[in-house]
Every structure is written in C-alpha cells, then in structure tokens.
C-alpha cells in the first residue's frame, strides 16, 4: 500500500489578528474582513491569489459573503470544521491535492460581548434540536450541567481525585500563562500578570474550576494564509512548513461531556491525535521546541502533556509545578503568547503564536525554535499540527 502523507506539502505564510476586547462594538462580519485583509497583506499576496476559504463551523459569517466583501473573486474551495487546526487541515489537504493555490482560514467571534451572527449549526443547538445534541439536553441539563464550565469541571474533579492532586496545585498553569500574556501586546491580559495568591482568591465557578482556570471570552478575529511549500519560499516571511496535521476522536466521546466511557478522567482523543501527528511528522516528542496547547481550562494543559507523551499519566500537574519547565528557557515552553487563558478564548490564536515562534517574532521568543506544536479540542474531538522552520 502506498504511503500517503501531507508532510511538508504546505506552509503558513500569512497571519493576522484584530484587536481583542471584551466588547469590540463591532460586527463579526467586520472583524472577519479585517483579519483576512491583514493576513493576505502579511503574506505578501493579493486577494486575487486566494482561491480557497475555510472557517470554524460555529462562525456565522459564511465564506460566500466574506469573499464578496474582501474581493476574493475565484474561490475554488470552501469548507468549515471545528476548532482551529481541524479547519486549517482542510485547507492543507486542498492545497496538497492541487484543488487550490492559496487558502485563507478565518475565525471571528464576539465571545465577550455575546453579539454573535447566526448560523444553522448554532441556531439548531440553541433551539435544543434533539437530533443535534439529544444526550446533553435530555440527560445532563436536568441535573444542573448547563454550561461548558460545569461539564469540564466533572472531568477535572475526577482527574484530580484519581491522582491525588489538590486543585490549588494547578495554579502554576494560569500564572505562567499570565506571565507570557503580560509581554504580549495582543493579549487581553497584556501587562497584567497574576500570582498564586490571585489564583487562590479567584471566584470558584464550578468546583474545582476557579475563574482564573477558565479562559475569558473575547471579541476579535484572526486569519491564517496557507500555500504550497514551494511557493512559500519566495514570499515575505519565513514559512512555517506544515510537517503534519491530524484529528482524533474516541468511542463514546462527546464535547466536554465524556461521562459514559470507562475512564472519564482522560483525554483519549488527544492521545490518538498526538500519536498520529508525530507519526506523520516523523519526529519524536523531544524534538518539539515549543508547544501551544488548548488551555480553555487550565487543568487540561496538564492532562494534554500526559496524553501527548511529554510526561507520565497523573504527573502533568507536577510537570507544571513552579512553571520552570513551561517558561521560555524550560524543558517545554508552553503557550508563549499567553494561551487562551491570557490572550482570550479564540480557537486559532494558538496557531498564530505557533507561527510567530517559527518566524522568530514572538513577544516571548524561544531561542532557536525550529519545531512548534499546536493542539486544539481538549475535551472533545481533538486536532493538531506540527510546524517547522523552512
């Protein structure tokens, strides 16, 4: 059987974000358009060069209307998917298959103000469409599990219990994230580092998750431009070559509410995705210079470190203790832009920071960073990518 691989076929050549804010006072449409224009400009391309568009499935701004606004006149391919890297994966495959030459991925949401554009997926969910989410609405909500925080807290509590970990020990994860965010002018918590006392004093949302365990919702947009690795060589910036992309799902898996499988304290989707990702990239865990993990909830960082093979099961929190391993000069610098905890919860922001590390332009640059890992979807269907310096 012929080996099929997407390794080294494509590269990220353009990145951009709009200003992130608790309340932007803007429409998601305008945020998406701004981000796309900035990313294409950053790549050194023209709108006429873009012939593919991909987006997050929960965003309400349809590619048909976006391309009309920004002047993409010849879109050969449009698609949407979950999270950041999963949607980008569809762009990688489209370019590798020769369907299009340059793809833009965009993400836009008013997650802070809540003024969101509608789409069919979100409308069905909010109307409690039983075909879309029967289990959650009929079996969990009547017992008080009404929010993502509550669903995640169930898994985190079990994880802490099984491994004998006190909830306060997790505090190093948001503390280090805030250190990075304080140096990143694009982060929502720029120049506002926190300490362990701040963490301990923060409001309990759903035991054991405190306010500082949970990434804040923000308004903003971002965009990423991909093209072939060959074409990327002549463009403006050092290309971030895509060594591998992968997705992972698991039996009896759900979105945050994984309560029906034998082990509810693990993230098997992350493990399955990670194994495939490193296989495709052809590298070892020790080759990774910097990692951008999904920290929508702080304890998920420790759990991902375990599932991805950077430490043993149950030792992720200890790996993060005092933050020494997570900082720029540590064993594995993690979420160097501040992550979602410091930058605001927007899938795709970790991709932006992953590319900055490859370019050497991060506000917390890892010296000599050659390989950057990006992971999304902790607590649900997982995805990830590995980028390298060209």
Write the layout of secondary structure elements.
Blueprint: E1 10-17, H1 28-43, E2 52-56, H2 63-70, E3 77-81, H3 85-96, E4 102-110, H4 120-126, H5 130-140, H6 148-163, H7 172-183, H8 196-201, E5 204-206, E6 209-210, E7 219-228, H9 229-232, E8 240-248, H10 268-281, E9 290-292, H11 298-307, H12 316-320, H13 339-343, H14 349-359, E10 371-376, E11 382-389
Parallel strand pairs: 2-3, 2-4, 9-10
Antiparallel strand pairs: 1-7, 1-8, 4-7, 5-6, 8-11, 10-11
Give a written overview of the molecule:
- This protein is an alpha/beta fold.
- It has helices at residues 28-43, 63-70, 85-96, 120-126, 130-140, 148-163, 172-183, 196-201, 229-232, 268-281, 298-307, 316-320, 339-343, 349-359, and strands spanning 10-17, 52-56, 77-81, 102-110, 204-206, 209-210, 219-228, 240-248, 290-292, 371-376, 382-389.
- The chain has a nine-stranded mixed sheet, sandwiched between helices.
- A hairpin with a 2-residue loop joins strand 5 (204-206) and strand 6 (209-210).
- The radius of gyration is 20 Å and the shape is globular.
- Residues 120-132 have low confidence and may be disordered.
Query: Count the helices. How many?
Result: 14
Proportion of beta-strand residues: 15-25%
Q: List the helices and strands in order.
A: EHEHEHEHHHHHEEEHEHEHHHHEE
Q: What is the CA-based Rg, rounded? A: 20 Å
Distance between the termini: 29 Å
Low-pLDDT sequence parts: 120-132
Helix percent reads 25-40%
Mean pLDDT: 91
Order of the strands making up the biggest sheet: 3-2-4-7-1-8-11-10-9
**How many individual β-strands?**
11
Shape: globular
| Structural class by secondary-structure content | alpha/beta
Q: Biggest β-sheet: count, sense, barrel?
A: 9 strands, mixed
């Amino acid at each position: 059987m012929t080996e099929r691989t997407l390794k080294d076929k494509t590269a990220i050549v353009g990145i951009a974000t709009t200003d992130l804010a608790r309340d932007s006072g803007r429409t998601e449409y305008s945020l998406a358009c701004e981000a796309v224009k900035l990313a294409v400009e950053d790549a050194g391309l023209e709108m006429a060069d873009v012939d593919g568009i991909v987006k997050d499935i929960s965003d309400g701004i349809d590619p048909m209307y976006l391309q009309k606004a920004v002047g993409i006149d010849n879109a050969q391919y449009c698609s949407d998917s979950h999270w950041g890297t999963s949607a980008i994966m569809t762009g990688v495959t489209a370019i590798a298959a020769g369907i299009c030459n340059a793809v833009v991925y965009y993400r836009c949401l008013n997650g802070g103000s809540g003024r969101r554009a509608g789409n069919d997926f979100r409308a069905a969910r909010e109307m409690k469409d039983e075909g879309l989410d029967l289990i959650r609405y009929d079996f969990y909500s009547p017992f008080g599990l009404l929010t993502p925080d509550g669903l995640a807290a169930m898994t985190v509590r079990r994880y802490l219990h099984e491994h004998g970990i006190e909830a306060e020990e997790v505090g190093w994860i948001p503390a280090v994230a805030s250190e990075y965010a304080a140096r990143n002018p694009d982060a929502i918590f720029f120049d506002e580092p926190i300490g362990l006392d701040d963490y301990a004093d923060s409001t309990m949302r759903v035991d054991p998750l405190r306010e500082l365990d949970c990434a804040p919702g923000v308004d903003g947009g971002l965009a990423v431009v991909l093209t072939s690795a060959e074409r990327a060589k002549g463009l403006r910036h050092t290309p971030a070559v895509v060594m591998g992309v992968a997705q992972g799902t698991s039996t009896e898996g759900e979105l945050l509410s994984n309560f029906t499988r034998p082990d509810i304290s693990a993230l098997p989707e992350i493990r399955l995705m990670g194994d495939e990702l490193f296989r495709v990239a052809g590298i070892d865990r020790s080759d990774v210079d910097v990692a951008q993990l999904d920290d929508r909830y702080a304890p998920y960082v420790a759990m991902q470190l375990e599932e991805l093979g950077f430490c043993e099961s149950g030792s992720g929190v200890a790996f993060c203790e005092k933050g020494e391993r997570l900082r720029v000069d540590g064993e594995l610098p993690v979420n160097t832009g501040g992550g979602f905890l410091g930058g605001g919860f927007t899938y795709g922001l970790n991709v932006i920071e992953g590319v900055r590390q490859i370019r050497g332009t991060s506000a917390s640059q890892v010296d000599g960073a050659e390989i950057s890992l990006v992971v999304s979807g902790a607590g649900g269907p997982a995805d990830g990518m590995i980028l390298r310096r060209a």
